[in-house]
Amino acid sequence: MRERSAVEVYATMRIALLVVALGVQFGLCARQLGGGSHVLSWSAFIVLGCVSALCVPWVVRGRALPGVVVAVGVPASLAAAWLASGVVPDGLRFQAVDWAFGLVGWHLVLVLLDRVPVLLAAMGAHLGVSAVQFLPAPVAEVGAAGSVVFGAVSLQLAVVVITRMLARSRAEAVAAAAEHDRQAARVRHAEQWECEQRTAFAGRLGAVLPLLADLADGVLDPREEDTRRRCALAATQLRRLFAEHDEVPDPLVHEITACVVVAERRGLEVSLAVGGVPADVPAEVRRALIGPVAAALAAARERAKVSVLRTGDDVRVAVVGDARIDDGTAAGIAGVEVSRGAYGDLVRTETRWRRS
């Protein structure tokens, strides 16, 4: 994105430079050419016009100039400038009649705007040849010539410096805007996550509060088995909900372990077996996998065995306990299958998630 912003700045500046080069050539320099001008001057004028025309297809489309255009445009511009300056009468160099000196600088900047080292080398060669051609001039003219050279070159180099500064500023602005968007996205994600957590906790507490109210009002008898089972289930669900937000390598086993710990605190004898490598299981799928298991643990009386199996095709969580749960198969959520079956005094509950 930073590179793209820099390309856009260079593309815009090239359009402006093309307008400047054509305006200077046909608006100012053309006045210095007349019917008596040397054929080399006319040839140089035409060559410089062709260099501008060569750049037009890429400039108007906002694309960088290809290497072949640079390889042709730079030597052609320098050669045209040297030919035109070579026929300027002595004593008139760096004056209005020496129209090619300043014009070629704009063509070089147009072609080499994004190749600064080559641009400096080309402008240095141009100034060197012009200085050699100017050596026979009287000393009194050196000061005036230096002012002309400084004014033309400094303006052209200033365009290069300004372009690079604009490109850097644009890139920094784009990077800052992108970082701002990322921060805003993180804030929105955090707010959404917080809202989801509040909703989840509110849902769990919404199921617990009526239970506590009924216990406080004497509607439920804590000595009854069903009441104890409901309390155990609420405690297991809350403990799993708290464990859901822990940063652990294996969230599924961590949440199941939290449910096992609650069951053990009730005096239940629980064993846990885990097989397979940790799998990436989404949070909603983990809730669907563990929900029936938590209910089975809450309904168990004395003992239970929990097993977790992860394979390449699916994830299974099963619990076998001495609980009274109706047989049959229940439909799961989030693509999770739930099945139950009785084996004598034991009931087996299994949840299964098939990986897509």
Automatic annotation (TrEMBL):
Keywords: Membrane, Transmembrane, Transmembrane helix. It comes from the Bacteria. The chain crosses the membrane at residues 39-60, 67-84, 96-113, 118-136, 142-162. This is Histidine kinase.
